[in-house]
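hey so u asked for the seq, here:
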Amino acid sequence: MGALQQTRETKPLARTLLLPLLGVAAAFAAGSPARAHPREAPLEPKKTVASQAGVLDLVGQTGGFIRAVAVRGSWAFAGEGPALSVIDLSDPSAPVRAARTAPVASLVRGVAVDAGHAFLAAEGSGLRVVDVSDPRAPVEVGALASASPALGVAVVGATAYVAAGRAGLVVVDVSNPSAPVELGRVRTKGFASAVVVSGSYAFVAGERAGLRVVDVSDPASPVEVAQLDTRKAALGIDVAGSYAFLAASEAGLRIVDVSNPLAPVEVGALGTLESAWAVRVERGHAFVADYWGGLRVADVSDPRAPREVASFDVWDSAIALDVDRRHAYVSLRSGGLRVLNVADPLAPVALGAYTPAGAVRALRVAGDRAYLASASGLQIADISAPSAPRVLGRLAAASPLEGLAVEGGRAYVVEEQGGVSIVDVTDASAPRRLGGYPQLRDASDVATSNGLVFVAAGGAGLWILDPSDPTNLAPLAVVATPSRDRVVEVAGGIAYVGSGEELRVLDVSNPLAPALLASVSAPNDVSDLVVAGDTLYLAAGGAGLRVLDVSNPRAPVELGANGEHYARSVEVVGDTAFVATEQSGLWVVDVSDRTSPRTANLFDTWGSADALAVANDHVFVADRSGGLVVVRSAAAAAARERERRERTGFLAYAACRLSASPSLFASWRSALAAACSAATKSTPSTTSPNTAMLIHHITGRTVGAEGSDSPPGW
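ran it, structure tokens below
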């Protein structure tokens, strides 16, 4: 009877393990070559605390805010994050990126195009010169470093004029684009952020210092000759005829008579705008990027009596624009570039949009796909080549996305005002909405477990939904909250919910009757959490990273903390925690001693690191200004290698056991025996502790692990 019972157990086990084990046999026989990385474009190095090559290495980047755009013909040259993107506008209803330069170390804040070259004002990376004579193949040919940030640029002939923040205006000779040379500079009052040149004068938007006028008739000796207070920060400027038009933030549009540049006089204003960031004048109309106010159009044919004639709500903050005779190209803070038909300025009409990865609020990685939830909707990127992430498909949303989970060919997204939606992502190029639960309008995060959906729904508490019928999501249970549930993670039948400055632990093993196990105070608002084994890691905002022992879910105990940086999002791999820290970028924390987590490294992303995910040996960081940033991490690679060895150890153990089973075909036993034999010949440098223990247990042969001379314990 015992022999019969053993046979019944062995056959199902053999069916379950056979194919993976045959693969292991081949792997042992052939060895395990290191995974080759695709060829990468040259990138400017980013700063790290350790500054050690191989510890944290930038390998790829895409997307980001479009802070500046210049249109020439059917091409838009856009400062997209830290790079120049060239967008094909031949079909205005379907703009598409045709090319992109390698990112530089700083964000691109200004773009000017002249004589086949694009001139980029790239903050700390200075003035960059890109040959765009072939728009589909832009090539950087020159650069001029500067100790001051380059924020805006204008080009006239062989001279570039750079708005350089507190350094004022810098004049540069670009007659040889490959070797730009500074000619002169003048320190203007305020913070020079934009510049336009007309005749022998440069007109500078000096933020709170208003309009500054500089005589540049002698480029080697520019002289500030006049100024005008604009009441609020002057952020953008254009000149048409003898008038300067200033986008003066909350002061709206200010119109200044500069017919006598030595004595500028304000003659008109349109103060009904939200916050004017940029302005362009075309055909007697001023087109204003009015932040939350979208695109505003004013008739300025009589500069002394401007009047608003049209507006267009772009459902996002408009921060830059360019205009030609038929179209306006409006840059959105988190939604890319919108193309509007303004042939009739009184009736703008939306035509198309270009949407790069930017302002991502949640990020998930599954296989060779990255899923990004942003203000513009859901994006799916191919990350099979980490050095060149590529957006495959998009699904627009009516309002910004807040949370995201991916499981079984579906994405579960939380929309700021639209509740929870289920999206079919089996075809990455064409994601489609299957259904949702729009009633949860205050939801902010979502998690999946055992085929169920868990939603942190603000003041409405924690909701557990059955998504088996996406067109009719069924609530199974609702757990009320004394606060506002903002984030949720589910592991092993336990839900961990961040509710402001409180952590709640719930037993959800019976989803019809969830039960509260514990409620503990947190030192700050919990913005993210992740479970690794019996440890819970909290991203607790200004309180940094917190580490809790949850081996007894009824009594979580804080083990340690590190408050050196702001913690926005967290992922843990092995003994390393990766934390998105907003302004400090990517923070790497050694948590091998959970009672004393210590900073291992810091990687400076371009703007605000808001979310991240780890896959293999890469960390994917969603940076608000810099888009999707890909960093290779030695710590992640080491942790993944340890996990691989543990899996290999188990399969090797099973191979040795099954190779002796008389119930298997002889050919199968032979292949499994080869896997077992190869495992027992492993060298100390490639054998994990668990593998070595198994080999010793089966064969009696001692194999040291990681340099050890004695058989390790389990």
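The longest strand covers residues 56-62. The chain has a mean pLDDT of 86.
lmk if thats what u needed
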